[in-house]
Amino acid sequence: MTEEYTEVVVLKRSDLGEKDQLITFYTKETGILRLAYGGGKSFKSSHLGLVQQFNWLDLTYYQGEGLGKIIDVESKYNFTGIKDDFNKLSYGSYILEFYYLTGTPEQNPLYFNHLILSLIKLEGIESDIQYKKLMVIFNTAALSLLGYPFQLAGCDNCRDLKRDINYYFIVDEGKFFCQQCIPGSLNKGLSVNLNKKEVKFLLRSKERGFGADKFPAITENSFNKLNKLLLDFIKYHLDLDFKALSMLNLYR
Question: Domains, the chain, ranges and CATH?
Answer without folding.
Answer: 2-77 (2.40.50.140), 127-149+190-247 (no CATH)
